[in-house]
Amino acid sequence: MSDVAANTPIQPRGGSLLTVDPGTRRRNAAEKRFRIYGMVAIGLAIAALIALLVSILGNGASAFRQTYLSMPVTIPADVVDPKGNRDIEEMKKVTTIAYGRLLSASLAQELADNGINPEGMTDKDVNNMISGEAAAQLRNRVLADPELIGQTVEVNVLTNGRIDGYYKGRVTMESAARDANTSPAQLQLADTLKEKGVLVTRFNRDFITNPDASEKRPEAAGLGVAIIGSLYMMLVVLVLALPIGVAASIYLEEFAPKNRLTDIIEVNISNLAAVPSIVFGILGLAIFINFAGLPQSAPIVGGLVLTLMTLPTIIISTRAALKAVPPSIRDAALGVGASKMQSVFHHVLPLAMPGILTGTIIGLAQALGETAPLLLIGMVAFVREYPSAPPDGLFEPASALPVQVYNWTQRADPAFMERASGAIIVLLVFLLMMNMLAIFLRRKFERRW
Amino acid sequence: MPVFWIVMIVLALAAVGFVLGRQRAIAAAGGDSRRLHSRPLYYGWNVALFTAVPAFVALMVWLFVQPVLIDRAINKYIPDEAISESSARSLMMSDVRKVAEGMDRMVSRGVMTEAELERLEASNNDIRAKMGQVGVALMSNVDATVLNAAREYRGLVGFGSKALAAVAIGLALAGFVFALLRTDADFRARNVTESVIKGILILCSSIAIATTAGIVLSMLFETGNFFRQYSWTEFFFGTTWSPNFHGNSRLGMLPLLWGTLYISFIALLVAVPIGLFAAVYMSEYATKRVRSIVKPAIEVLAGIPTIVYGLFALITVGPMLRDYFAQPMGLGTSGSSVMTAGLVMGIMLIPFVSSLSDDIINAVPQSLRDGSLGLGATPSETVKQVVLPAALPGIVGAVLLAASRAIGETMIVVLGAGAAARMSMNPFEAMTTITVKIVSQLTGDTDFAAPETLVAFALGLTLFVITLGLNIFALYIVRKYREQYE
């Protein structure tokens, strides 16, 4: 005890707890900054999502509207059915050129009826307003319904892709002056027809049902073949991947002894889940097409490749569903005298079914969006005919929704970009429906043990 | 007869066997099924399985082995002298197959009868035209060797399919009779049936191994073919990529590897901070309501197919970056660039990193957080100094898995990064990756045996090894440095 200690007043370190010292202020500021970083990160992620969806919807929504010439078309019997006997095989010999002439004549008639005189435009210019595909569409319609012969029917004639682009903002008067496929005079004529109500822009249901069209006719391109191809592949995946995946999971979860072989199988499955999808495409090309000789671009090959890709997903989710069933169920079954396999198949599996179904639907949704492996098995080809019904249809060339999107992005015409975005909207709608179904099933059949 | 009918016949036999087996078992017990060892339906299943399983196994094996054996046999009919310089054995073999198929079609469509086909001579020049009529396109006129070999091929295939039918149905019948004869009251049908079913389950599980083996073998085989035609040092260490379909192409992998790593690096630069901060915020700060909105939103990002991201890069991000960043700064004029692909790939990886990190951060026990907060640390200091170091191995593992995903990604780079193979530091230039080149080399229309096409397999093998290595490394790090909490 010294006087020094008693005489020097004790300096309190810092102020009272109620005044914030610089150190604490720095720490509080750092805390606030950290929170802001977190919120900014989440904001960026959600902004990216919104930008993605807005961009796709903005580009693709216009694909669902198409410009048509709504006018009466006479179908004289002598042109369409020269032999006069309504024989379909004979009528098929009349080519689309003849039908094209019918459409041109009807257009000229319509112009005359409405008092429009296209000065400075040749007949070819005027007729060019009609899409090259419209004649084939009319021919198909007449062949399907010969009652139309000799009558005058209201037909929605597909217009040229450039005119469609004009009403969607892709084509302007300046660009039309430089364009080989259209001209400003044609666009003005289109405007006049629109005022008279002959040219209409309406909902394009054909986008979903038409097959793909050639490079020069983006207005006629549709998703029909792609949707059927994707459907076939999903069928193949469902029929193959679900039983094999469930069987493998049951073995791994219930019966497998804890030895080296089981370890190897489990390591393999988790590795396969992480392999890039293009490697599966290489596998499909090397084994299914080169070695086994299956036809290229066929839904069966695509389905087999997608099965191999979906198998790890289904196995992992099925194992989780099986694990969630409480052991008391298994023990009770064994207690009343069931064998191990009977307890699994009669008691555990039905209870795990909702989880298995949910996992399968999610796996199918992932498989629907896969593109890279399908490109390698030859689906870049241009497929124009619908594949026939299964099982033959599984071996004919087809396309798939994501592959069709890729094919369209590789074409030069900007109208195809709009089609590609529209196709993505259709794809996203399918995925949304499947995910909603999975969530609904999960909510409805979820059991809390 | 076609495979479909063989399958149907075997299935029908199995169904009949089921019914008969069941009846025989009940009859053997004198009408009282309680005297049987197992329930009657197991006796039925016993007969059905013994009928169907050997037949189907034989069918599978035969279908795999038959093409190999037939090809080997036909090879004897094509002596080396018959192969001209401009062609190859594999091309002649495919010609033989096409001619044989053309013959089949001609007979089935009635263009020619079997007898006429026997008498067909190679000097008959309109064979090629006739083949064209039935839809078979041939490169050149059909010469005597090919015609002969095609005849033999047809004969062998016909014999093979008849033999297959005989073997499959014979096995089915043998199994049928064997199982039926074994059926009596004391036969342990349920045990036998369950063993067979267990065997089927094991078979299904081994498909995973078969897939991995298939991937590795198919790529190794073709890569071996490739390295026989092109030196492997030039492939792995060459810095020029310029395939030339007239031969003499330079196929160095390094520009592609550089593009892959550069794009993945930018993608991780975007995804890891955003994903990690989002995960930290959601697990430490967010209220239940915010979490219930944000988590599903980020899951939606995960469920979007990569082609959508690719189109987004092509249509929106590419032109935006070019118009607002690259051109004003004079760094590049292309809409497809490393920056475009990297940015969009980063957006795609955000949910991946975020959900993995979320799981790992939640696994850190609450007691560590409570201790830190109790000592007076702010929540951010707790996260920075306690939680993240505890979760670090898991987060590193997550980052490595995300990197592996980025390296293997195809569609975003195909649409967003362009096809120019160069090694440059400018992120606004178009650079290509391994995956893009695999797609472009395999979807062009070149001869399959040329090195330009086979290089895709070598690239695929490299990619597979890299991603597998990253995955294994990630697992190893997580396992080695993981903290064990009670």
Concise account of the structure shown:
The complex is a heterodimer of chains A (449) and B (486). Chain A is mostly helical and 449 residues long.
Labels describing this entry:
heterodimer, A: mainly alpha, 3-stranded antiparallel sheet, 20 helices, B: mainly alpha, two-stranded antiparallel ribbon, 17 helices, flat
Structural description of this entry:
The complex is a heterodimer of chains A (449) and B (486). Chain A has 20 helices and three strands. With 449 residues, chain A is mainly alpha-helical. The termini of chain A are far apart. The mean pLDDT of chain A is 85. Chain B is an all-alpha fold and 486 residues long. Chain B has 17 helices and two strands. Chain B has a two-stranded antiparallel ribbon. In chain B, helix 9 (254-284) runs antiparallel to helix 14, helix 11 packs across helix 12 (338-363) and helix 13 (366-374) runs antiparallel to helix 14 (379-407). The interface between A and B is large, with 85 and 86 residues.
Topology (elements, then pairings):
The complex is a heterodimer of chains A (449) and B (486).
Chain A: H1 3-7, H2 22-60, E1 65-74, H3 77-80, H4 88-91, H5 96-113, H6 123-127, H7 134-144, E2 152-158, H8 161-168, H9 173-178, H10 184-196, E3 199-203, H11 206-209, H12 224-255, H13 260-272, H14 277-291, H15 299-324, H16 327-335, H17 340-368, H18 372-376, H19 401-409, H20 415-445
Antiparallel strand pairs in A: 1-2, 1-3
Chain B: H1 3-28, H2 40-75, H3 89-109, H4 114-119, H5 127-133, H6 144-182, H7 189-229, H8 232-237, E1 241-242, E2 250-251, H9 254-284, H10 288-303, H11 306-329, H12 338-363, H13 366-374, H14 379-407, H15 411-416, H16 434-443, H17 451-481
Antiparallel strand pairs in B: 1-2
Number of strands of chain B: 2
Structural class of chain A: mainly alpha
What is the average per-residue confidence, as pLDDT of chain B, rounded to a whole number?
85
Q: Which regions of chain A have little confidence, pLDDT < 50, spanning 5+ residues? A: none
Q: What can be said about the biggest beta sheet of chain B?
A: 2 strands, antiparallel
Shape of chain B: flat
Mean pLDDT score of chain A, rounded? 85
**Got a strand count of chain A?**
3
H/E series of chain B: HHHHHHHHEEHHHHHHHHH
* N-to-C span of chain A: 71 Å
Order of helices and strands of chain A: HHEHHHHHEHHHEHHHHHHHHHH
Main beta-sheet annotation of chain A:
3 strands, antiparallel
Alpha carbon gap, first and last residue of chain B? 66 Å
Detail the poorly predicted runs of chain B: none
Widest sheet of chain A: strand order? 2-1-3
Radius of gyration of chain A: 33 Å
Main sheet of chain B: which strands, in order across? 1-2
Q: Percent range for helical residues of chain B?
A: over 70%
The proportion of strand residues of chain B reads under 5%
